[in-house]
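Protein in question quoted in full.
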Amino acid sequence: MLPGAFNLSDKNLLLRHGVTDLLQLAQRRGANLHKLLHGTQIFEQDLSLADSRCHHRDWLTLVARSQQLASPELPFILADSLLHNKHSSLCQSLPLAANLATSLRQLYYFRHQLLPGIFVLLRKTDSHLSIVLKPAVQLGAQQAFIIKLAMAFLVRLVQLGTQRADELNIQLKQTAPAHLAHFNSHWPCPARFSQPLDALHIPLSLWYQPFITRQAAGFRDLSRACYQLNRRLPPQRGLLELIQRQLYRALPQQASLEQLASYLGLSSSSLKRLLQQQDTHFAALADDLRCDLANLLLLQGRLSNRQLASELGYSDEHNFRRAFKRWTGHVPSSVRLW
């Protein structure tokens, strides 16, 4: 695999940074621990060891088995459990930051210590910061659960630090659930479903508002512990993240497969093979990124199709409109502000 990248078979998840939380919550809902762990490379004795890790593939297996419990509140409760996880210096540090900007920078920098399977794209407007959540590796049928978990974690952090989470806006790709009451009871802000992207929109007025829970000395000490953990758990990124970030940096130029392969130190055939292992291909990743960016730009409500085409590397607005219709089934003018 690439240096600095991880795949589903790498042991890059500390059990005490979310895995044991999930197992405990599943057991409280009637799941049998032996059955949850069966077929994975996680053993019961590992759960009590501070440095025990698991494969990302095993994490996805546990998420899949927990979903079978038909407990729609699970990602929300797990998010709250993670935010108060006494074994994670990162999670403990976030509410102690001076403000949301500092807290989210901390989370972004050390994200590999918590949810390495997710990465974010950021876009700032005059009034909001938009955070788009995307899979860093192939998450399969567990993607919706993990996106909800990450989103719930962010919403809970904002509420804990500012008591103003009702000012947030959420977009989710998943269709509206039958258990909509669970969303409404855990999220104090509007959530829209069947959206073209998974995104959290945060008013800039919240960005530097002092956290109610801020504690400078505690934040400093816990940050030091995060840096120390980096020596044992160095930052690694998923292949899908590495590729889409480089595509993003290249815009408005449209980087080719050959250029990306060269950047990653691979042959084109090796990169194709790695993407096949992730059940995707280069053109799909490029389209997915441009679709997300197009929707974010359209939400600003001020750019013409010609300007959008230029931002995304299309030769003219007609090509952009055709591409957008292919991605979403809709014309750009159908996108509306929340």
